[in-house]
Amino acid sequence: MLEVQNLTKTLTSGSQQLEILRGIDLRIEDREVLAVEGPSGSGKSTLLGLMAGFDFPTSGSIRIDGQEIAQMDEDELALLRGRKLGFVFQSYNLIPTLTAEENVMLPVELRGESPEAPSRARLLLEAVGLAGRRSHYPAQLSGGEQQRVALARAFAGRPSILFADEPTGNLDSATGKVVLDLLLELNRREGATLVLVTHDPELSRVADRIVRLRDGRIVDALRLKQNSSATRELEIE
Fold this sequence. Notes:
four-stranded antiparallel sheet; about 240 residues
């Protein structure tokens, strides 16, 4: 479970204080699929980065499975991200000097599970339809293929929570649909909580719940369906 209480983020620009987030309260249940919407500048990507431990809030609380992360140091956050969290970036963020398989293996190796890394990477690349491209470097892959590698990498460490920041934002609609379907299928198999930041209504419609931000505040929350996590099964070992 992920709980956010009275979360704020303020940045200094010259002599001005810019309030990015203003008192966010949010509770995300295990295996829930949550979509975070809002116009540019609403604070949604900032919120995602704080929950993923990439930045520190100005004030407030962020708890993952009851563990407070807002006061952790960089080493503690790195350990948490390696053990519990996954992230899918809009710009893929693959390491250009590593093959697709090596990119996917990396989170497993960082967890100290190197013997398992090759088989885990191959299984996930097969799941996203790239078994035949595992020796290719990112520059040899299309944008859609790179994002599919990024999906496989995000799930490689078996995260309990997966964050995705505009995961289809750099893709055409047809490729974006393929990536979205793969993201949801992998999430169903792995049983992770999924938090999506998106402008894409197609992504929002697959969520259990939508939270809308404006000017750093939650202005609306809509439950689309009952969380079906109880019936989701783990199929990738």
